[in-house]
């Protein structure tokens, strides 16, 4: 479902990313394939320097359908950025990708808190995040971070996932499943 980024998938990911239903919400708005290739090389370099963690989201056939990243990593925190191609909307990929990525972040990378910054008008992302029981609204608990991302005007809602909340949720799933 998730794999480390590589340059071989850039063509198919770029084609999915430039779709008008996706493009306004991606972090790296690359208008050409070459620009996307360059941005992907930078992300791979950043991961080697431990300043971000980036994965390609795959469907059941192993085809790339989107990306998920943790960026601005510092003090065991970071910001999440996720996008999935329009043909894959509404099929559960977002939730499965986030759960797999959170498990990696919290279990393998010692991340403690992940922030999710979602544009107020991005209803699709807000609905998706609402399906995750361990995600909480952060405007009060992390007011300084909220003010920082909305320093000129209130564009974003801020959510967060703490390691302990995610782990407790995973333990509940395991107990219910057994």
UniProtKB/TrEMBL annotation:
Domain N-acetyltransferase: 12-132
Pfam families given in the database record: Acetyltransf_3 (PF13302)
Protein name according to UniProt: RimJ/RimL family protein N-acetyltransferase
Domain of life: Bacteria
Record keywords, A-Z: Transferase
UniProt KW Cell wall biogenesis/degradation keyword: no
Any one GO MF annotation of this record: acyltransferase activity, transferring groups other than amino-acyl groups
SUPFAM superfamilies with a match to the protein in the record: Acyl-CoA N-acyltransferases (Nat)
UniProt KW Transferase keyword: yes
